[in-house]
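FW: tagging you since you asked about this chain on Friday. Here's the raw sequence from the shared folder, copied in full. Didn't touch anything.
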Amino acid sequence: MKPKYLYAALFVSASSWMASASVATPEAAQPDLEKTYADAARRIRETALRERGAWDKLEILCDDIGHRFSGSPQLEQAAAWAAKTLRADGHENVRLERVMVPKWVRGRESLEMVAPRSATMSLLGLGGSIGTPAEGITASVLVVKGKKELLAAGDKARGRIVLFNNAMPPYDPEKGSGYGTAVRFRHKGAALAAAQGAVACLVRSVTARSLRSPHTGAMSYDNVVSRIPAAAVTIEDAEMIARLAARGHNVRLTLKMQARDEGLVPSSNVLGELRGSSLPEEFVVIGGHLDSWDVGQGAHDDGAGCVMAMEALTVLRKLNLRPRRTIRVVLWVNEENGLAGGKQYAKEHAEEKHVAAIESDSGGFHPRGYSLECKDKARQDAAVRQLEAMTALLAPLGATRVVAGHSGADVSPLKDSGAVLMGLDVEGSKYFDYHHTHADTLDKVDPQELQECVAAMATVAYIIADMPEPLGR
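HL: got it, structure written out here
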């Protein structure tokens, strides 16, 4: 789920995307692109929907390798597999580019309610958290909904475990998930609680639906306050604690976490290309992030984004659709807890001409269209109009939606280069049911919807790479 700072893009609500959506396409622009690329779009769509190449790749990534957390052997195994697979599919300039990534180790963890009764609770430590002493931390709980209630409590937080019981709203087809309204306490809750004297921080899992599933994710500390352990609990347990506290019970918990930071270790972004026919030094990037959290298989987040980009390039190569510009697949590392891969790619390739960069990091669900942004607002407006013409060719997939103002985390470091940054927009009603949990596994991915995403990505990437003028010009 992510520009310039890891979570800034996550905090942009879908309603703000809609508010900045473009005006209707000038009639002169739309028919030209549709007419020129109609046959190519049809061939790409038919080929992508007839095959299961993305699913076959995802099956290996999920079942044979598993989770791919930064600093883990599985992430390095996944990078080697991806490079080998790109070469086997015939792509050019396949390589690994070194990136230093943080290695945070979860260790064993547990949460027990010791009063007013004994009960074991589910939890997941938040990425980047410190651990507890070996004997754990036992303390009473202060339940708050947000920062305002925490500050109003004054000294009541001192010596306690603060629980942020902040609910994520239900998914809305137009406004989206409301993720940004809930994730802020996962990210900054420990710093807020520590500033008030708390000894540990718990957050209600960032999801609107739960079957007692805790959701992990990254957090960060404010350097001016002490560091306290932080973990996520399930919706069900957060609500129970809140009910008990509201009825006057002194809820006491014992939290044990072995979490630790082991510094920076080497990893790699993975790159492969379909070289352009006449403008090979101009690039259209497509990709997703290869890393995942250390729970589940990272199937939707973001194995699906990786394999759809890999397969999109393969479909174009099979059809001998070689555009003017180079299409480059980039599989970034460390999106989840640092964005090191996206930052390193932008630094190493700063002198190259990036026309556009497309990221998929919302799961492998049915595609709806694209979001986009550009530092040059006039170019952004022109790109929106051109993209509307392109997505008209995706009408058989139902992927015609175009929204301005957002792209994705890994492509965000390229914004200052002037490139048009884009995000594949997919149907999102189920994504946060699985996000950052043990349940993000291959069985949650629909093979047909995944191939629809391949068709949507391959079509738009090909047109952008083949247009006589750069996107937005």
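FW: The radius of gyration is 23 Å.
HL: agreed, and The chain has a mean pLDDT of 93.
FW: great, closing this out.
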